[in-house]
């Protein structure tokens, strides 16, 4: 029988010389397939790390699910995935869809019922990646502790040479000094950004020759420069760290855990100027009053440019945010009075009362509730599956120990690690189950609140945000209201003034 083979290859690093490894893997795989009389259906090339769900792995899982291949062939399990959970996911999907997994060294061959050590090899693959990751982190930490700049992108005004920052010999250092002085003279970060844009001053992305570099300075860019201690000769690194090798998520580290080394390179501004700016930023933050959130905040959008609408107290309504920022050259005002919008919604509800049966609305709400709870159930099942995987690992470790395939110290360490992971997942499971229970209550309250609102004419902000997805406002002030339970309604208002 000519089986359709999906072959997965991967290199250990992204260095150029590793490309020959891909060719070697492919040649070995093609020879093996020819010897067996099978046919190569597809070749999946994975990235060097193999610890996350990348595009090639997604493609493989999709082909397994749709039974586009009969056999998954890899040189060894270390080439398939270095994330044990991901490796088990491939195995589970393959088992479910009748797809065989075969390694060239025949340590795993489900066609012959040989998959006993699959879990162990998957664990070892992840442990190898974790060890490599820790070694790389150690090297970086050592360099950071020495004040070496290990980032690939230097702060605006600097260049990198031999992992050290040097002041650029162009106008960028002058721009940095100007930003600090302008801020001390009362200019806001936004005003500074707008002025730099108007004058055509190159942005940080342009200076660093990034693809699709923006020509416009951003307020957050200026604010970040005002907070950047690199400008006083201090190197600050290690602000975040990866949670694990299996995710791209990072967590923020406290300043005590960061690597901060002073007087490493030549400063662009003095410490006195930097401290004066920090004091000024703190004072402005204290004096900043948070505006009252309006009933239609984050619901109204300009129908022409898509920008969120801003509430203006003096106009008692909402205007296009781009117009508020740039005037008529950005967009028209699209003014809509808050009172007029409230009247339209009240009118809509009166129409609903006379034309729609309560049972119909309740049915739609029940659909939404069921969908939301189904999503919760899926997340709970995923966590339960992860716990089951780790419980199975513990059994595997004990079996290996009993059969003298694993020493006591390694077995104990592996089981302890599995227990630690199970504990984390059990906490997550408890959180999800509590959330599911609370969500049931919340969804019931939502249904009750909505029905009360619909048939009693209530207009509380909380309920408005529950039943309206968004509102698009035309240039003449006509709102198009997207209710969460029906097609959008469009009404012309005659009270825009």
TrEMBL record:
Coiled coil: 362-435
Domain Recombinase: 155-287
Domain of life: Bacteria
Entry keywords, A to Z: Coiled coil
Identification of the protein by name: Site-specific DNA recombinase
SUPFAM superfamilies given in the database record: Resolvase-like (SSF53041)
Transmembrane segments: none
PANTHER family xref list: DNA RECOMBINASE-RELATED, DNA-INVERTASE FROM LAMBDOID PROPHAGE
Annotated ranges, domain Resolvase/invertase-type recombinase catalytic: 4-147
Organism, as annotated: Salipaludibacillus aurantiacus
Keyword Coiled coil: yes
């Amino acid at each position: 029988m000519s089986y359709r083979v999906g072959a997965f290859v991967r290199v250990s690093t992204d260095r150029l010389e590793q490309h020959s490894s891909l060719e070697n893997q492919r040649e070995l795989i093609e020879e093996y397939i020819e010897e067996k009389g099978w046919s190569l259906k597809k070749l999946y090339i994975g990235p060097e790390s193999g610890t996350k769900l990348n595009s090639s792995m997604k493609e493989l899982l999709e082909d397994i699910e749709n039974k586009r291949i009969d056999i998954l062939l890899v040189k060894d399990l270390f080439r398939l995935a270095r994330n044990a959970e991901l490796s088990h996911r491939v195995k589970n999907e393959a088992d479910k869809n009748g797809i065989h997994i075969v390694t060239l060294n025949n340590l795993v061959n489900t066609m012959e019922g040989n998959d006993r050590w699959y879990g162990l090899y998957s664990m070892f693959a992840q442990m190898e990646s974790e060890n490599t990751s820790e070694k790389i982190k150690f090297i970086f930490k050592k360099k950071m502790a020495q004040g070496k700049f290990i980032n690939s992108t230097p702060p605006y005004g600097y260049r990198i040479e031999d992992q050290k920052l040097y002041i650029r010999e162009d106008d960028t250092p002058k721009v940095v000094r100007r930003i600090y002085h302008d801020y001390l003279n009362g200019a806001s970060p936004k005003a500074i950004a707008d002025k730099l844009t108007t004058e055509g001053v190159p942005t940080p992305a342009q200076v660093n020759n990034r693809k699709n570099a923006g020509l416009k300075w951003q307020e957050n860019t200026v604010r970040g420069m005002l907070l950047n201690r690199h400008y006083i000769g201090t190197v600050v690194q290690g602000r975040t760290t990866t949670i694990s090798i299996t995710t791209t998520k990072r967590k923020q580290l406290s300043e005590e855990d960061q690597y901060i080394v002073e007087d490493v390179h030549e400063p662009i501004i003095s410490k006195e100027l930097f401290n004066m700016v920090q004091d000024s930023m703190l004072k402005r933050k204290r004096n900043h009053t948070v505006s009252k959130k309006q009933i239609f905040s984050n619901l109204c959008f300009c129908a022409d440019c898509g920008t969120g609408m801003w509430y203006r107290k003096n106009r008692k309504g909402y205007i296009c945010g781009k117009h508020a920022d740039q005037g008529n050259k950005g967009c028209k005002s699209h003014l809509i009075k808050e009172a007029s919008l409230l009247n339209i919604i009240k009118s809509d509800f009166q129409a609903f009362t006379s034309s729609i049966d309560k049972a119909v609305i309740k049915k739609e709400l029940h659909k939404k509730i069921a969908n939301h709870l189904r999503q919760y159930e899926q997340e709970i099942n995923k966590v339960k599956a992860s716990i089951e995987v780790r419980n199975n690992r513990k059994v595997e470790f004990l079996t290996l120990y009993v059969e003298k395939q694993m020493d006591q110290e390694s077995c104990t360490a592996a089981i302890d690690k599995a227990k630690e992971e199970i504990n984390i997942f059990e906490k997550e499971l408890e959180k999800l189950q509590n959330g599911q229970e609370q969500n049931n209550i919340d969804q019931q309250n939502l249904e009750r609140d909505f029905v009360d609102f619909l048939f009693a004419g209530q207009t509380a902000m909380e309920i408005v945000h529950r039943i309206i997805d968004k509102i698009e406002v035309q240039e003449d002030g006509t709102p198009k209201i997207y209710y969460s339970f029906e097609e959008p309604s469009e009404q012309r208002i005659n009270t825009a003034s």
